[in-house]
Each structure stands twice: as C-alpha cells, then as structure tokens.
Design brief:
The structure holds two protein chains of two kinds. Chain A is mainly α. Helices cover 79% and strands 0% of the residues of chain A. Classes of the chains: A mainly alpha, B alpha/beta.
C-alpha cells in the first residue's frame, strides 16, 4: 500500500475520532482540528490518486479498489463544497465514517485485472458520472436524516440537545434538493453513457445484468421523489424515508450488485 | 523597565446597590472625559477606564500603592457626585491585581450580568475602553487587559451556549422560526388578533427580517389599529383562510373562547402551500388553535405552555453553560497572568544581562589600562575569562527566574536594576 494512502486513511480516522469527541465535548477547537485532519487527509488522498493516475497511465476508476478510493475522495470533496455553502458542521461527523470505511475497504481489496478491451474514453465518463451521482445521493441521504431529526425535535418541542446543533429545516431542505437534482442529472447521464459504452464493448445497450437492474430501480425511486417534490412540494417525513430507501438502493447498486457476478466488475 | 503599577478596581452593580444609588453615581457619557482626566494623575493612578451602565459603575485603573489608590478612587466617586464618602461605603466593592483581571473578564463575558449571557454588556465595555483610549487614559497595562477581555468574551460566546438561548416569549418565537426557516428575510407573518405579546413578537420578527406582516381581527377597526401599531397590513377576518396559505408564521391571540383554526383547515392550507412549512404560535388562553394541528405534516404548532417550557429549558441550560464559562474565564485569567509575569521576567533577564555586561566591560577597560603591553592572545583570554565568570554567576539567577518567575523577577529587579529604574 502506498504511503500517501496510509497517511490519508490515518488522518481520516484521526478526524473521525476528533469529531466524535467534539460531539460530546462541543469545542470549537475540536471541530477545527477535525476539519484540519480531514483536509490534510484529503491532500494526501489527492496526492495518492494523482500518483496512481501518472503511474498507471489511467484515471483510477478501473477496479473496485480504485473506485472505492475515488468515491471516498469525492465524498470528502463534496463535504468541503457543501460546507462552503451551508456551514453544517454536523455533516463532517456523518461523512467521516463512510469515508473511512470506504478507504479501509479500498485498502483491503485486491487489484483485479481489468480487461483491456473495455478501456477507453467512455469508461471514464460513465464511471465518474455514476460515482458523482452516488456522492450526491449520499448527501441527499444525510440531509434527509438530519431533516428528520430536526423536524421531530420541533414537533415534540425538544429544544437544546441535538436540535441545537442541527441547521434549520430550510437549510437542510435546500441541501437535500440541490444534491437530489445533481444526483438525478449525473445518474441519468451516467446510465446513458454506460449504455453507449456497453454497446461499444458488448454490442448491446442494455443487458439486464444485476448492476443495471439495481441502477434502474435506484433511478426510478429518485425519479419518483423528484417528481413529487417538484409538482407537490413533497417533503418532510415520508419524503425523507423514501430518500433513505433510495440510498440503500444506491449502496446495493454500488457495492452489493457485484456479488451477483454480472458483466460489471464493480 | 519594571513598573510598580498594579491593577485596581472600584465599582458597584445591581447586586451590591439598589437603583437609587446606582443612578446617583452613574457617569454621564458626555462628562466622562472630565472624570477620566480627574482620576488619572491623582492619587497614584496612571491609567483608568470607566464603565457606566444602568446596572453597574466600574472604575478600572492601574495605580501605584494599591490600598491607598483604592481609597482614593472611592473618595473620588463620592466627591465627584457630591456625596459623603461614608454613605457609599456599603455599596462599593473593590478588587486588586488578579481579582481585577477575573472581574473584568467576567463582566465582559456577561457572567456578572443581571441576565447572564446577555450580549449588550460586551459592547458597553468596548465603548468604555475606546473612550479611555481616545482620551489617552488607557496605558499599556489596560491596553493589555481589555483587548484580552474581549477575546475571552468571544471565546465564552463561541464555546458555550450561554448567549444562544432566549429567555423571553418573543425571542424564543423568533428563534424557533429561525430553526424552521433559517433567515427570516422575505418571510411573512400573520397576526390573528393581537395582544401585547403578539405585538412584541411581530416586532421582533420584523426586526429579524420578516418582510410582511398581515393583521386580522374580528372587528375591522381593531385590525386597522393594530396594523398601524406594528407596521402591518390589515386584512378582513373572512379572508383568514387565504391569508394562512401565504403566511409562513402565524401568531394567534384572540379572546375567542373556541378554536379559530381547526385541524381540517390546516390540512387544506398545507396542501395549498405545496407543503411549505408553516409555524403557528398560539398565545391565547383559552387556546385558539386545535392542538391536533401539530399532527399535520409540515405544521409546527407551539402554544404558550410550549414556549414557556422552551424558556425554562433555556434557563437551565444557561446555568450549566455559565459553569463552563466560569471555567474558561478561570483558565484565561491564569494564562493572562502567566504571560504577564513571563513578559516581566524576560525584561528582567535582559536587564540583568545588560548590567553584567556593563560591569565586565568597565572592569576589563580598567584592567587593560593597567597592563597595556598584552599580546592579542592574552587579551582575548582575559576577555573570555571575565565573560565565563559573569555567565557562571548569572546562570543560577536565570534558572530561578524560569522556574519561579513571579517572585524572582521582583527580587532581582530590586537588587540589580535599581540604577536603570532611575534613568
């Protein structure tokens, strides 16, 4: 394993520990240190991915190992971007466990060979679009969960505690909708480019392989959500629950479907 | 060089003096410069800041001879306001050195306030300090102390929840509204009937950014009157249903003995609002909004008891946070005093080394005059010898300074630096 990768993982884990501490002790300095650890981890992670790209002469999205690590990188990136706009500190603590898990996952996986025939321009476009969609849906999922907590607290008149640390419903809803739309657009494009790629490689656009079916189900769930959101302003508890289901489906599409041995290596 | 100035403070506040006394010894902002100029330069006082608010009067000063200076300050307060000194004695407190630091930190952090955590006091302290700076009555000592106090106050505010929770109906209502809508800019509020509390709340809402206030009441004249009071637009009472659809925050306080908003109304309203959240505050007794309205998705209903529960929780939270804040202040006081003594001792170190260097040079010059025909080598050997002796002698002093800066620096400055104090 590469040194920069190890450094990135360790810094993420340090960040995770610090933000867990911050959860109980609530110190501005703790949040700042956690933020710094995450940022430094991100720098090493970026370095690692850059080296990988240069040494392997391809973007690191060919194997699950590479994709998981790239996904973790994108999640961290998305945290920084959304933090710039929304300043939700709590998001950090929710992002870090997943980032750490995916990094450990990526560290543990073996390098599988990648069929040279599949390589090419479309694989980059397809995989990076789909990964971006996953990351966006992850943010949608997180904001839904936080929304549910805050809504519950407001309904039950339990101020202080969790509610005090949560952003307003409006802000969460804004993040939720933004990430939902980004996710939907990239997922749709990702599936279209995937079909084109499939046609180039296997001579067919759609093959009903488990990954494709899972992706379709995920896409339909989010389509349903976005439709009712845009027409009836559907939000709140039930929308949040469906969002959670949608993300379970994302996880299955991303990680689970590979175990059914379809055409998709990951 | 080392100064003999020490911090002192004489003051009174809402706990030690009733308002009749406080108002008599308050310092008028316009005449403050007279007072400050009178204090500084008299009775050993070198620097001074006067803080005068409706809850407190505090004179913070740096002076020589602490005890005398404190008595002088007390006399000054009495004399300035034309009162016999003895009559003020029971109401005035005084602090010196370390306690002054602690007190100023606590006052700036709003830990000494009547409503702990209120934010006004910090601004008042800043103003008092700025005035003293402008007049030149705040010297190096107070210019160390006050900016530090502002930083402590900021730390207390960011690291504890002491100032974030509200303890009045109208501010709690605004706070809750912000939990739902974030910024209230562009949000609209609807007053259904309007008691005093509803008017206060609506004023607080528009202060926080709410851009439209509608007012409705069963008697149109009353609606007109209330609307003009809160700067809102009157609406006929029969339009209540439509008004609910376009209002984000609804404050209900009529004297009706029955519900004026039922659950079914709200279900329809929310559908028409395309599920946009709506915040309903029912401050009427008996209640005017069906409690089941809270069951409707995206409706958040708070009645007067709910608001009071939130306030009670905030009060308790504040007490807990105050403890945390006291701990922060305590550690900051320690840190500040440590820094001061380190700075003092470092000036002692420099002075000590300088004195020794001078002695060496003088004695070397004298010796060289007596033995002029020395080779450069022996000259250098002699120089090194004197240097080494000087270093070995000063070494234990410097060590002692590092381990116990406070006492040693005072002693050393008395022994070695008396000459340089005079010039």
């Amino acid at each position: 394993m590469h040194l920069s990768f190890l450094l990135a993982i360790s810094l993420y884990l340090v960040g995770l520990a610090l933000s867990l501490l911050n959860l109980s002790a609530r110190r501005e300095t703790l949040f700042r240190s956690a933020f710094a650890a995450l940022a430094m981890g991100f720098v090493f992670h970026t370095l690692f991915l850059t080296l990988l790209t240069i040494n392997g002469r391809h973007l690191p999205i060919y194997t699950s190992k590479e994709a998981f690590s790239l996904f973790a990188w994108l999640v961290t990136l998305s945290f920084f971007i959304s933090y710039l706009k929304f300043r939700i500190q709590l998001l950090g603590i929710l992002v870090l466990p997943l980032v750490s898990a995916f990094m450990l996952f990526a560290g543990a996986l073996e390098h599988q060979p990648f069929p040279p025939l599949w390589k090419g321009y479309w694989v980059y476009v397809h995989t990076s679009l789909v990964l971006t969609a996953y990351v966006a849906f992850f943010l949608t999922f997180l904001s839904s969960i936080l929304y549910l907590f805050q809504e519950r607290a407001l309904k039950e008149k339990r101020m202080g505690g969790v509610s005090e640390r949560l952003p307003s419903l409006q802000k969460l809803d804004h993040l939720l909708l933004t990430s939902l739309i980004v996710g939907m657009v990239t997922m749709t494009l990702g599936m279209l480019t995937g079909a084109i790629w499939a046609e180039r490689v296997w001579g067919r656009y759609w093959g009903w392989d488990p990954k494709e079916i899972a992706a379709l189900v995920t896409w339909l769930i989010y389509l349903f959500l976005i439709h009712y959101r845009l027409t009836a302003g559907w939000r709140g508890k039930r929308a949040a629950i469906l969002n959670v289901i949608g993300f379970v489906s994302v996880l299955f599409t991303f990680v689970g479907a590979s175990y059914f041995r379809g055409m998709h290596a990951f | 060089m080392l100064s003999d100035l020490r911090l002192i403070l004489v003051g009174t506040n809402h706990r030690t003096a009733p308002v009749e006394i406080r108002e008599r010894i308050a310092f008028d902002a316009e005449k403050m410069h007279h007072a400050l100029r009178d204090i500084v330069g008299n009775g050993g006082v070198a620097e001074a800041v006067i803080l005068s608010t409706c809850n407190r009067v505090e004179i913070v000063a740096a002076a020589e001879g602490q005890q005398n200076a404190i008595e002088n300050l007390k006399d000054f307060v009495a004399r300035y306001h034309g009162l016999p000194a003895i009559s003020l004695e029971p109401y005035l407190y005084h602090y010196s050195s370390r306690e002054v630091v602690r007190h100023v930190f606590r006052v700036a952090s709003s830990l000494d306030s009547m409503v702990v955590g209120e934010t006004q006091i910090l601004g008042q302290v800043k103003e008092a300090f700025a005035r003293a700076c402008a007049l030149g009555t705040a010297g190096p000592i107070l210019r160390d102390l006050f900016p530090r106090a502002f930083r402590v106050a900021k730390r207390v505010r960011t690291e504890t929840q002491i100032a974030t929770s509200s303890v009045s109906i109208s501010t709690v209502a605004v706070e809750l509204a912000q939990k739902i809508f974030d910024k209230l800019d562009g949000k609209s509020a609807l007053l259904v009937g309007a008691g005093k509390m509803a008017r206060q709340t609506s004023r607080q809402l528009s202060k926080s950014g709410a851009s439209r206030i509608w007012v409705t009441s069963r008697t149109p004249e009353r609606a007109m009157e209330l609307a003009s009071q809160v700067g809102g637009t009157p609406l006929p009472y029969q339009n209540l249903a439509e008004a609910l659809v376009v209002s984000d925050i609804v404050i209900v306080s009529t004297s009706a003995p029955h519900f004026v908003i039922e659950q079914a109304d709200m279900v329809r309203v929310v559908r028409q609002r395309k599920n946009q959240p709506i915040f309903v505050i029912d401050i009427s007794v008996p209640r005017n909004v069906d409690p089941n309205v809270n069951q409707v998705d995206n409706v958040f209903l708070y009645d007067i008891d709910d608001l009071k529960t939130v306030i009670e929780g905030n009060r308790k939270g504040r007490a807990g946070e105050a403890e945390l804040a006291e701990a922060i202040v305590q550690s900051e006081v320690e840190a500040f005093l440590r820094e001061l003594s380190v700075r003092e001792s470092s000036s002692v170190i420099i002075g000590l080394k300088e004195t020794i260097r001078q002695i060496c040079e003088e004695e070397m010059a004298r010796a060289l005059q007596k033995i002029p025909d020395l080779t450069p080598d022996s000259r250098e050997a002699l120089q090194n010898l004197s240097q080494r002796i000087a270093n070995k002698i000063s070494h234990p002093f410097l060590n002692q300074l590092r381990t116990n800066p406070e006492e040693t620096s005072e002693l050393l400055s008395q022994i070695f630096l008396n000459d340089s104090d005079e010039d």
